[in-house]
From TrEMBL:
<comment type="similarity">
    <text>Belongs to the peptidase S66 family.</text>
</comment>
<dbReference type="Pfam" id="PF17676">
    <property type="entry name" value="Peptidase_S66C"/>
</dbReference>
<dbReference type="InterPro" id="IPR029062">
    <property type="entry name" value="Class_I_gatase-like"/>
</dbReference>
<dbReference type="InterPro" id="IPR040449">
    <property type="entry name" value="Peptidase_S66_N"/>
</dbReference>
<keyword id="KW-0378">Hydrolase</keyword>
<feature type="domain" description="LD-carboxypeptidase N-terminal">
    <location>
        <begin position="16"/>
        <end position="131"/>
    </location>
</feature>
<dbReference type="InterPro" id="IPR003507">
    <property type="entry name" value="S66_fam"/>
</dbReference>
<dbReference type="InterPro" id="IPR040921">
    <property type="entry name" value="Peptidase_S66C"/>
</dbReference>
<dbReference type="InterPro" id="IPR027461">
    <property type="entry name" value="Carboxypeptidase_A_C_sf"/>
</dbReference>
<feature type="domain" description="LD-carboxypeptidase C-terminal">
    <location>
        <begin position="205"/>
        <end position="335"/>
    </location>
</feature>
<dbReference type="Pfam" id="PF02016">
    <property type="entry name" value="Peptidase_S66"/>
</dbReference>
<dbReference type="InterPro" id="IPR027478">
    <property type="entry name" value="LdcA_N"/>
</dbReference>
<keyword id="KW-0121">Carboxypeptidase</keyword>
<protein>
    <submittedName>
        <fullName>LD-carboxypeptidase</fullName>
    </submittedName>
</protein>
<dbReference type="GO" id="GO:0004180">
    <property type="term" value="F:carboxypeptidase activity"/>
</dbReference>
<keyword id="KW-0645">Protease</keyword>
Length: 346
């Protein structure tokens, strides 16, 4: 694997960029956005710096790329946080100034459609961070989730090993952002079930790569994924979105990664807890359980066909459910299937 640069970390009191390279949802939900900014100041001591397209829905991809490039170029900015995901960031990354990004590495935090940026930085040799959203996590109704808050703090300011912790409670039924009053009450949560381990009892250490599966599939179609030989040895990060892809499509997307020679190169895979509810698809508890089970079966089938020696860990709390643990992207991770522990180095 190509060597990667670990960007220097911010310190409390620093200025950090707030950008919307994907969807400009802060313009539609300013009450959620402003709550996230207040918490960024109060809880982390960081001063958010908003860029011109942050609150604009449908901004020109070139303008969004210009904002992101400017955030990396500004010597007074020490980290870059995406407000939320979306579905068209694949049109933005071609307009980034790669020389600027490579010459000014900074911690970038995002997930979902931000997989485009995470993968782009990875190919430039820069470590970034899967997770963190100004709207979804900093703007969480009621209060920050303790696991999300602690993980984000460690990722922002720390540089040591950090043990990930299974959530005692989790959720995937968010409050309605259209109702400002909904910010007063925490979202509904469910009892945690721990992680589910499959595969050989061994210890795997490596650097991470992956992200949202649907976006990875787009990147493969656009030929923006590094060769399989370059990614061999990576610990694969895999999670699905609020669009709730059916299990058969999850299998087919992974099968395509297998045919490309990618799956066989991953000694371990961390599979995010499947989000199984959305406002347009309000699945009942039995339906949610069946959806998650079907997805685990689809992932298991794909790896059984292409990578029989891979350690699989299901229901890890990263991705589109609550809480969200921050995972370094291109950073180091230790997956200990003997003691059933996962550690990352921020």
């Amino acid at each position: 694997m190509t060597s990667l640069v670990e960007p220097p970390k911010p310190r409390p009191g620093d200025r950090v960029a707030i950008v919307s390279p994907s969807a400009g949802l802060p313009g539609l939900f300013p009450h959620v956005y402003e709550l996230g900014l207040r918490r960024l100041r109060a809880e982390y001591g960081l001063e958010p710096v908003e860029y011109p397209t942050t609150r604009i829905m449908g901004a020109d991809p070139r303008d969004r790329a210009r904002d992101l490039t400017a955030a990396f170029a500004d010597p007074t900015i020490t980290a870059v946080l995406a407000t939320v995901g979306g579905d068209d960031l694949i049109t933005v990354t071609p307009h980034l100034d790669d020389e600027v990004l490579r010459a000014n590495p900074k911690p970038y935090f995002g997930y979902s459609d931000n997989t485009n940026v995470l993968n782009h930085l990875h190919r430039l040799g820069v470590v970034s961070y899967h997770g963190g959203s100004v709207l979804v996590h900093l703007g969480r109704p009621g209060a920050l989730h303790p696991l999300s808050a602690d993980s984000l703090r460690a990722a922002l300011f720390g540089s040591d090993w950090y043990d990930l912790t299974p959530a005692a409670q989790w959720g995937d039924e968010p409050n309605d952002w259209n109702d400002p009053a909904s910010l007063a009450a925490e979202p509904v949560m469910f009892p945690g079930t721990g992680w589910r381990w499959q595969g050989p009892a061994k210890v795997v250490e490596g650097r991470t790569w992956g992200g949202n599966l649907e976006v990875l599939h787009w990147l493969l179609a656009a030929d923006r994924v590094a060769p399989a030989a370059t990614l061999a040895g990576s610990v694969f990060l895999l999670e699905t979105s609020e669009e709730l892809p059916p299990a058969v499509e999850v299998y087919r997307m992974l099968r395509n990664l297998g045919e490309r020679g990618l799956l066989d190169g991953f000694p371990a895979a961390l599979v995010g807890r499947a989000k199984a509810w959305e406002f347009g698809r309000r699945l009942t508890p039995p339906e949610k359980k069946a959806y998650a089970e079907d997805q685990r079966a689809a992932v298991t089938r794909a790896f059984a066909e292409y990578a029989t020696d891979t350690v699989l860990v299901f229901d890890v709390d990263f991705g589109h459910t609550d809480p969200q643990l921050i995972i370094p992207y291109g950073g180091e991770v230790r997956v200990d299937a003997v003691r059933q522990r996962i550690s990352v180095r921020y």
